[in-house]
Write a structure and sequence with these properties.
Sc_DH/Rdtase_CS, glucose 1-dehydrogenase [NAD(P)+] activity, Rossmann fold, alpha/beta, globular, 7 strands, 248 residues, seven-stranded parallel beta sheet
Length: 248
């Protein structure tokens, strides 16, 4: 029997990149998946199609996690379609790098609303249905440790997520709900390509500091998330796992 047979997972921001890889990995272990997307319905539908083609179950559900009603809608979709909720992966996120001179109120609120408020709202909605043995996995970032220049707002959101992971592990521990974070290093995705990270001097510098000598791939992160979602990780909570090939 697969490790997640009979489980139901909501993966936010799952239409591409790391989120898509996580959705497919959880499904491959038997979980039924709510594939959330903010704007790319086509991308989410492609992920659902790939899961179905492999014999799994998934439904694409649109929603902006920074809005309470839409975050609630994702959780409601899990209950409506699959009858329960066992795993929440808070993967939705945006990033913009800029020097401190260029930080604006609009930029600050956009990034914090999705990266931090969205996690809180989706988790708040999920905790009404999560039961003993359930798992919440937040997708943070290695930037909270390496604090690169020109990333004050984005890095601040990921530092907040590290703190939230610790707080909620303690807060939800009495209900036997585990809360952990996976913090990737540089990962090759559609987003890092479009942002100009892949192939840049910045990426090359990071790879030079990475003991395993390469950028990460989405599946590198998905495998860690799948482990945390399973009973193999039943004694882990409040952990921040740096999934970066050794980059610190």
């Amino acid at each position: 029997m697969s490790k997640l047979t009979g489980k139901v997972a909501v993966v936010t921001g799952a239409s591409k990149g790391i989120g898509a890889a996580i959705a497919k990995s959880l499904a491959a272990e038997g979980a039924s998946i709510i594939v959330n997307y903010a704007s790319s319905k086509a991308g989410a539908d492609a992920v659902v199609g790939a899961i179905a083609a492999a014999g799994g179950k998934a439904v694409a559900v649109g929603g902006d996690v920074s809005k309470a009603a839409e975050a609630q809608g994702l959780i409601d979709a899990a209950i409506k379609n699959f009858g329960r909720l066992d795993i929440l992966v808070n993967n939705s996120g945006v990033y913009e790098f800029s020097p401190i001179e260029a930080v604006t109120e609009e930029q600050f609120h956009k990034i914090f609303n999705i990266n931090v408020l969205g996690v809180l709202l989706t988790t708040q909605a999920a905790t009404k249905h999560l039961r003993e043995g359930s798992s919440i996995i937040n997708i943070g970032s290695g930037v909270s440790r390496i604090t690169p220049p020109n990333s004050a707002v984005y890095t601040a959101t990921k530092g907040a997520l590290d703190a939230i992971t610790g707080v909620l592990a303690r807060e939800l521990g009495a209900k036997k709900i585990r809360v952990n974070s996976v913090n990737p290093g540089v990962v090759e995705t559609e987003g890092t390509h479009s942002a100009g990270v892949i192939g840049s001097d910045f990426e090359k510098a990071l790879i030079q500091q990475t003991p395993l000598g390469r950028a990460g791939q989405p599946d590198d992160i998905a495998r860690v998330v799948t482990f945390l979602a399973s009973e193999d990780a039943k004694w882990l909570t409040g952990e921040v796992i740096i999934a970066s090939g050794g980059l610190r």
